[in-house]
Amino acid sequence: MSDTSRPPSRLSDDYTGGVPQLRLALNQIDARVGDIAGNTESVVRRVRQSAEAGAQLVAFPEMVLTGYPVEDLALRSSFVEASRAAVRSLAARLAEEGLGEVPVVLGYLDRSATAQPRYGQPAGAPQNAAAVLYRGEVALTFAKHHLPNYGVFDEFRYFVPGDTMPVIRVRGVDVALAICEDLWQDGGRVPAARSAHAGLLLSVNASPYERDKDDTRLELVRKRAQEAGCTTAYLAMTGGQDELVFDGDSIVVGADGEVIARAPQFEETCLLLDLDLPAADPDAPTGVVDDGLRIDRVVLSTEPVPSYEPEYLGGYAERLDDDAEMYGALVTGLRAYITKNGFRSVLIGLSGGIDSALVAAIACDAVGAENVYGISMPSKYSSEHSRSDAAELARRTGLHFRTVSIEPMFDAYMGALDLSGLAEENLQSRLRGTLLMAVSNQEGQLVLAPGNKSELAVGYSTLYGDSVGAYGPIKDVYKSSVFRLARYRNRAAEERGETPPIPSNSITKPPSAELRPGQVDTDSLPDYPVLDAILDLYVDHDQGADAIVAAGFDRDLVVRILRMVDTAEYKRRQYPPGTKISPKGFGKDRRLPITNGWRERA
Ligand SMILES: Nc1ncnc2c1ncn2[C@@H]1O[C@H](COP(=O)(O)OP(=O)(O)OC[C@H]2O[C@@H]([n+]3cccc(C(=O)O)c3)[C@H](O)[C@@H]2O)[C@@H](O)[C@H]1O
Ligand SMILES: Nc1ncnc2c1ncn2[C@@H]1O[C@H](COP(=O)(O)OP(=O)(O)OP(=O)(O)O)[C@@H](O)[C@H]1O
Ligand SMILES: NC(=O)CC[C@H](N)C(=O)O
């Protein structure tokens, strides 16, 4: 994101908008997929806090009860029924705990009321749904109307769409409801909210992070608010799930498209704000509106809001610059993976190079240096600086550090097998992989794989060697950006008066696998800026060889690189999962056959 300017806020101290109509609590929180009980507890806790802060309408993200995305759990009836039951018991529990008077909107997994069995399910097909809980009851439910089915999303595989336009009357204000993709596609609930004369459009979301997507989202919400003709609140999820990061950044925009409030990125928070909204239109239409959506109106309360001066005002959280945002996503994704899978500590092979150094810095920020373990594993080809730079990284960050030479194991293999060339080179990498897995088994840390997107693209890693591990924190970061992020992290430390974590020698020396004497990456690969530019066109933008050559790259080089990418598909399929930060990561975003006779020629 780049827009750091603070928009004019209507919620400032000189607020003169009269009596506010609604105090809205947008709970921008994390949820753990499959942990319905744990997610329920965090919802109850947050409802209580919101109610204590005087909220009159409390909202939670898309599928907060089940976590998002649930993937094939949606196809299991036991899970769907557990989610449905959890919504009902949550409504009752909120009332029992004296929290029933405040309406709560939250996402969960449901199934359609009409019998549309899919994939052998006995009853209705699964739906990505949301419920309104009020006075101990589930007052209203509805399902997502537009289903995303591109990139990482497969919602046609799981869900059938909803066909209603839900509108709840809260304190005399008509609030239209929507779920995430409902705002991304034209038609459907946005024009329907206008047709229904809504005073507020509230969308609950789980929108995965991608670089620059915050700018796209902001423009989207501004546009949709104007189309809907009413204030629009976009409530985001935050945290991480496997390869996805949810960056938060909830947004509230007025009917004129002006930003009213914006929540922080990558943080759990409650954006609480007083909105001056129009009273419900007594002649508001009923029946079917845009796209065949049937208005489903529920009156929850018509009591006027008490007259008070707005005291807590949402505000506009400071925006992160592009590097800080990308780095924040990598930290959030790694932390979520480690903690949600019940681990505390991680293990990294430290070569003294920039990739493992950046991964170590991210890990220290994610779980604390006291939970990060590094091992230097020198061989006879290891340079002195590979050991000293790794030790210096440990000294700067405070991570646990030890050295285990692979020479005795290497000699034993070489004595038993007559290996040479690539087999001998790869053996060193595999011994390091085996050693890391052995320590992980013994001590219980998760092994981190330090491969970057450039290496993964061209297959520049050893299978069962440096590609072993549980999670690849930088697998969606091109090598050029690895340098940028390492410099960013050091600069950020300097600005805070802290020791920069990454030794400058790790940043400035030429990248090398050190598997044979004097080896450097450029023996096998072009310079990284050239490689990354070609990869960006091929991997991220699906350009063919002719188009890439036409963009100004050498024909033979293009053909060679594209061939390397194609023939490394088998390696990528065996690589650990890792944080997605681009529109096309090596995960669900890019699905190519392994066995593939198609070669790009120019
Ligand atoms: N389609 C396919 N499906 C399944 N398996 C397939 C396959 N094609 C080959 N294979 C198998 O894959 C194996 C070959 O792959 P692999 O053993 O990995 O070896 P390979 O890719 O031949 O070599 C590793 C390359 O990565 C470089 N490297 C290694 C370590 C670190 C770094 C670094 O700088 O970070 C770079 C190294 O210099 C070398 O160029 C063979 O067993 C082959 O049979
Ligand atoms: N001497 C070593 N000690 C410990 N780990 C090593 C060593 N050499 C390689 N590794 C591990 O294998 C990974 C691949 O390293 P390699 O040096 O081959 O290339 P790289 O991709 O340039 O990575 P880096 O920038 O971290 O050196 C490293 O990130 C590290 O985790
Ligand atoms: N959960 C969703 O519906 C997400 C889809 C939407 N296009 C997004 O990325 O934000």
Question: Your description of this structure?
Answer:
- The chain has 602 residues and is α/β, with parallel strands linked by helices.
- The protein folds into two domains: 299 residues, Carbon-nitrogen hydrolase (Nitrilase/N-carbamoyl-D-aminoacid amidohydrolase, 4-Layer Sandwich); 196 residues, HUPs (Rossmann fold), CATH 3.40.50.
- Helix content is 35%, strand content 17%.
- The chain is built from 18 helices and 19 strands.
- Strands 13-12-9-8-7-6-15 form a seven-stranded mixed sheet.
- It is elongated.
- The two termini are 36 Å apart.
- The N terminus is likely disordered.
- The structure holds nicotinic acid adenine dinucleotide (DND), adenosine-5'-triphosphate (ATP) and glutamine.
- Nicotinic acid adenine dinucleotide binds next to helix 11.
List the SSEs and their pairings.
Blueprint lengths: L21 E7 L7 H17 L4 E3 L17 H20 L7 E8 L14 E9 L2 E7 L11 H4 L5 E7 L2 E7 L1 H4 L4 H7 L4 E5 L8 H16 L2 E5 L2 E4 L2 E4 L3 E3 L5 E4 L6 E7 L18 E6 L22 H19 L5 E4 L4 H14 L4 E5 L7 H14 L2 E4 L3 H10 L4 H23 L2 E2 L5 H6 L20 H17 L8 H5 L19 H13 L4 H6 L4 H13 L1 H5 L29
Parallel strand pairs: 1-2, 2-3, 6-15, 7-8, 8-9, 16-17, 16-19, 17-18
Antiparallel strand pairs: 1-14, 3-4, 4-5, 6-7, 9-12, 10-11, 12-13
Helix pairs in contact: 1-2, 5-6, 7-8, 7-13, 8-13, 10-11, 15-17
